[in-house]
Write a structure and sequence with these properties.
By secondary structure, this protein is mainly alpha-helical. It has helices at residues 2-18, 36-40, 47-62, 69-84, 93-101. Helix 3 crosses helix 4 (69-84) and helix 4 (69-84) packs across helix 5. The relative contact order is 0.14.
Length: 105
């Protein structure tokens, strides 16, 4: 009887390990609603991932098909520094980007 329970438990564990895709739900995020606090505390996603999306968004608005990786890294750090200030925590991230980098950036 113990052998049957052990095999059953083992098969459940193997199934859970083999099927990690069930654990990940597809999530849609309205980036215009992300706050500085959510950005710096990684509440939505890692800041670098959000920064890459924002970079592509603003590059698309300017019709620029290239990415300057060094400038992206620098901009991300500047935005993170800006967002960590207590007065800026509730500011929408996209407004923070425009304050730090200028409009349309």
């Amino acid at each position: 009887m113990k052998s049957v329970r052990f095999k059953f438990a083992l098969s459940i564990i193997a199934f859970v390990i083999a099927c990690p895709s069930f654990a990940f739900a597809q999530v849609t995020v309205d980036v215009s609603k992300i706050t500085c606090k959510q950005f710096v505390l990684h509440e939505i996603a890692r800041p670098r991932l959000v920064a890459i999306w924002l970079s592509g968004y603003y590059a698309g608005k300017r019709d620029v098909p290239t990415i300057n990786i060094q400038a992206l890294e620098k901009s991300t750090k500047e935005i993170e520094r800006f967002c960590t200030r207590v007065d800026n925590l509730t500011l929408p991230l996209m407004q923070a980007v425009e304050k730090v980098l200028g409009p349309g950036q």
